[in-house]
Amino acid sequence: MIGLVSSIYGGSGDHGICIGSILSISCDLFVCGLGKVFFTRSLPFTYAMAAKAHRSFSKLMSVNSRFLSRKSEGQNVAVKVPMQNNVASKDRVVAFYGRAASQARSHQIQSAASSPQLPVPQKEENQVPDFTHLYEDRGLNPLIAEFNEKAHDWLVTHDVHTQMGPEGWKEFKSGRTPYLVGEVYHDVDRKDFLWCAKFIAWISCLDDFCDKLEIWSDMNKTIGLILETQKVILWFCSEDPRLLRNLEMVFDCIPTDQRDDVFSAFADSLAYARTSSRAGLMSLDLQPLASALRELLIEYCERLPYDCNVRMAQYIQNYALTIVTETKSRLSAEYHTSVAEFTDFRTRSIGVQPLIGLTDLFIDSRRWPQIPKDVFVDTNVQALVDASCRAVAWDNDMSSFSKEVQERGDRFNVIFIIMEECGCSQIEAMNRAKEMFQNEINEFETRVANLKVEPQYQNAVAEYVRICRLIILGIPRWHRKSQRYQKEDHYLR
């Protein structure tokens, strides 16, 4: 990797402005680089205050749950409970709505270590349970029907439909993936929302394409595409050493007799692109999916500060590298055998990190100060992002089990791993996954209760919290409607 770093840093030109000011946040912070902890500093913060707020929050939940238990099941009840922390947000409430209200007494928010009792699906083993969500249902963004088509048309302009093949493209379109962002993003600028629809369509296409047998059965095809996406990412963010270091695992997957040639070609191509400024980036001969990513990131990275660019680059790279890991596992028939070792991988492979990262777009549109890197690496901020990813992952695996595991034999699914690890039935594994889902929500809210942010960043951090809650609520709703996982397209009803 030394040669790669030298080749890239030899280029000229800076892309983006690095925000270097270190600002105070009331938590213990650390700054990591090159795998080492450079320094640690302790800042004034009374954790007892956050703990007290969380206890008060839980007490309020308990009181309101008892109130809800006295309401009739068919009554449309909404009880809002204020969040007690200093993160300023108009969404500082959680709520029980409709059917959820009648069930709320068995779904009180508990501490992260608790294991709530959740009902076991009795009708059939493949039934995916409904959850009692504690967040306000905003419904479907009315723009999504129009933007679903716009996102598909945009991919066609990059010839992605040809790369996917007729059957692959047809299956992708039937899943209506852009509707996912329609379930999540509300009150956002029209231009931002269209970008989000394009982005989720791109992620879904990349996932579908690399899942094709003729692609993953040839490691060179997978690596070739992934490296092209990394050229685009590194053009904007090559100053970040982690992005370069993480590519070692990709090059290690290349046969020894080909590795040097692939490595040299990659480094030379990227160095040329950087020394030639934007014209060099545009001159790169890329596959359709990588070309589409190039257009997306040009719009994104030229608009936002460098810290935001690196954050998104890391999230996209995390997702892309899990594709390489999946391909390697399939070819070697070596799979995860325990939930513990699967959890970190699934946090990245679910592809939710980039969707949370899109919050930086909305913050920019509101002209709020962006969250700098030193604030974002706060333990609680990172943990609430990860908890959101895991919650969506466990719901995804329950929703996709029938189609992806039973029909296609895919083993990258927590239900399958629980069954193998514990020797239990599918019903028992589903019940365990439901507990895991609820525990992630508990973990998320615990971290939110512990947030203590400097005033100038409260709005931005609150926006991250709001988007995470909408993701935890909205993506599972999409799982139950999309033909990607269901036999019917519920969006056509």
From TrEMBL:
An example Gene Ontology biological process: isoprenoid biosynthetic process
Entry-linked Gene3D superfamilies: Farnesyl Diphosphate Synthase (1.10.600.10)
EC assignment: 4.2.3.-
Entry similarity comment: Belongs to the terpene synthase family.
GO MF, one annotated term: terpene synthase activity
Coiled coil (residue ranges): 427-454
UniProt KW keywords: Coiled coil, Lyase, Magnesium, Metal-binding
Enzymatic class: lyase
Cofactor: Mg(2+)
Alphabetical list of InterPro entries matching this protein: Isoprenoid_synthase_dom_sf (IPR008949), Terpene_cyclase-like_2 (IPR034686)
SUPFAM superfamilies reported in the protein's UniProt record: Terpenoid synthases
Stated name of the protein: Terpene synthase
